[in-house]
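Journal club prep — side note

Before the paper discussion, L.F. wants everyone to see what a predicted structure for a comparable chain looks like in token form. Sequence:
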Amino acid sequence: MSHKDKTDLTENEARDRVWELADKINICMFVTWDGERQRSRPLAANVDRDEGAFYFLTDVGGMKDDQIERFPVVALAFSDTSHNKYVSVTGTAVVSNDRAKIKELWTPDNKAFWDSENDPAIRLITVTPEDAEVWDSPGMIVATVKMLAAAVTGAKVELGNNRKVTM
């Protein structure tokens, strides 16, 4: 970790905290780039640490699909202001029409947007995280965690001051 990080968490503990808080907070501001501006919108995250991914259901008519196709690097900002807990994740997003995963992620809450999991307009956004930051109190960075997709394959990742972490 860099000298700016103020934490007594190990890298593994910090990584665990990123996944735990993102899952608990659930709603994030999903930030894309359109070539001129960043665009943010609130989306419900389906956090799956075992698969190393954040999943989102979206509508085929949304602008974010085109933005992701052109500029796949996105940011996810999770905020629990009542407990001063914040998580920021940067990763690579892919839009797909994976009907099996859409059905797996479907909940009754989604009926506010679509009639059923079979609606042909539903798309899946999969975000593979590359790095994350977590704050557990106002103004204090708890840890910066690198979660490079290459690490999933067992590759070692260099972190600031030659620290390494494997996802």
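L.F.'s comment for the group: The longest helix spans residues 11-25. Keep this in mind when we get to the figures.
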